[in-house]
Design goal:
Blueprint: E1 11-17, H1 24-37, E2 42-45, H2 64-75, E3 79-82, H3 92-106, E4 112-113, H4 131-140, H5 161-167, E5 170-176, H6 181-184, E6 190-191, E7 201-205, H7 210-216, H8 219-228, E8 231-236, E9 243-244, E10 247-248, H9 250-260, E11 264-265, H10 269-280, E12 283-284, H11 287-304
Parallel strand pairs: 1-2, 1-8, 1-11, 2-3, 4-5, 5-7, 6-12
Antiparallel strand pairs: 9-10
């Protein structure tokens, strides 16, 4: 059964943009382009600047010009999301400082977040999976992410699960190759009783760089999303190839221009999830349904390289 979208819209589409490798001027180009087309999406930020060696390039809210741009986007209807406190691992105390800075800058706690690959990432690496699927993941990943993420581990210096539960509404987990995210994860936003420190989870569609994004948002896939009346939450990094030598990727421009002409509901991630929550509540996912999600994600991770 199709969702009845607001304003007589036929489907929903949005983007959650992680800040990795994104520079201020490149981001301005992309967000100005999206705004002109009528899209309102979610831009995640790091609230704090680094105090140790970064594990990723990218700008943070410690840069006054970057913060001004983020505030301007928020004022124009974009959502500002959270990508952990900064671009290196942060202790519990530093994470709280980051969330306090976010609230000070934007007037509220984050509605939505996605883990960066920091040690305080919550339910990340093998902890994304359960049972035998976790064991398979560890074998395939050669144990590289085992004992690396501690945001949910009580008593650890990087633990902040209780803070996450108190201050953040939605957290991203599984990423799928299909454009209809809601078709792949019809329970979202959902609660996982085995992972109680996250209030509600959401999934996303693969677009971690510009090549993957344009593949997922191809003309045929756009038409499929519209025909199915579904919802797409694209996962991406606008810092990964969207702007080269000052010029925006032509294929990205063409596809987004085409998509903007359709009868889509183009709202931020938090707005979309709040609407689904209003319609269906936050459903507690069953073990069987979660196993189905995990198997699908693990298969795509192994054979399609999804995130």
């Amino acid at each position: 059964m199709k969702i009845q979208w607001p304003q007589g819209k036929s489907f929903a589409f949005t983007i959650f943009d992680d800040p990795d490798s994104q520079r201020l001027e490149d981001g301005k180009k992309i967000y100005s382009f999206l705004a002109d087309l009528g899209f309102r999406t979610t831009k995640a930020v790091w609230p704090l600047g680094p105090v140790r060696e970064p594990n990723s390039p990218g700008d943070t809210c410690a840069d006054p010009a970057y913060l001004v741009e983020a505030l301007d986007l928020a004022g124009r209807g974009f959502e500002i999301g959270y990508h952990n406190a900064t671009l290196h691992s942060s202790s519990r105390e530093e994470t709280i400082q980051g969330l306090d800075a976010f609230r000070r800058y934007f007037g509220h706690d984050p509605v939505s977040m996605a883990n960066h690959y920091n040690e305080e990432a919550i339910y990340w690496g093998p902890a994304r999976l359960s049972g035998s699927r976790r064991a398979i993941y560890n074998v395939v990943a050669l144990g590289r992410t085992r004992n690396r993420h501690f945001g949910h581990v009580e008593g650890h210096p990087y633990f902040w699960g209780d803070v996450c539960r108190d201050r953040i509404r939605y957290c991203r987990n599984f990423v799928f190759s299909g454009i209809n995210t809601l078709g792949d994860c019809p329970w979202m936003p959902y609660r996982d009783p085995e992972r109680p420190y996250v209030n509600a989870w959401f999934a996303a569609s693969e677009g971690s760089n510009v090549e993957r994004f344009v593949r997922t948002v191809s003309e045929a896939n756009q038409d499929r999303l519209e025909a199915e009346g579904g919802a797409c939450i694209m996962y991406t990094h606008f810092g990964h190839g969207y702007v080269e030598n000052g010029a925006m990727n032509t294929r990205f421009r063409t596809l987004m221009d085409r998509l903007s002409g359709k009868n889509g509901w183009f709202v931020p991630v938090g707005t979309l999830l709040d609407y689904l929550r209003q319609k269906n509540g936050v459903r507690e996912i069953s073990r069987a349904d979660r196993a189905r999600l995990e198997r699908r994600w693990l298969w795509e991770k192994l054979f399609r390289g999804t995130s």
